[in-house]
Amino acid sequence: MVQLLEGLSDLTLGLEVCEHALDRRPGLAACHFLANYLTLHFHSQVSPARRRHIHDLHLGSKVLLTLPPGARQDYFPLLSEPLLMLEQLLMNLKVPPNYCCYCCYCCYCIVNKNIKRNM
After folding, report:
1. What superkingdom heads the lineage (predicted)?
2. The total number of structural domains that make up the chain
3. How far is CA 101 from CA 15, 57, 97, 105, in A?
């Protein structure tokens, strides 16, 4: 996939393809890849609002990828709302004890990013 995207001569086309694919929510692994690729390669070409949305999808996909495969589908609709996803995981007691530290770290990253954005 990376070779195909990097092989495009028109960077704008690559950006459009990635954004369109990401908006279709093709699946967890693909969403994670696309959000990461957009962040690394097109950070300055997207609006701040779009950048936040892509960042949220990237964080949400990271959280889901740490869950057991059987639990992922229940929380996939919350992919673009990582704080809500973490809240639901904690409230539903779906988070094993060793996962709590990672959840707290994700919350810290999200909240810290929101504080910096609003300054």
Report:
1. Eukaryota
2. 1
3. 34, 20, 8, 6
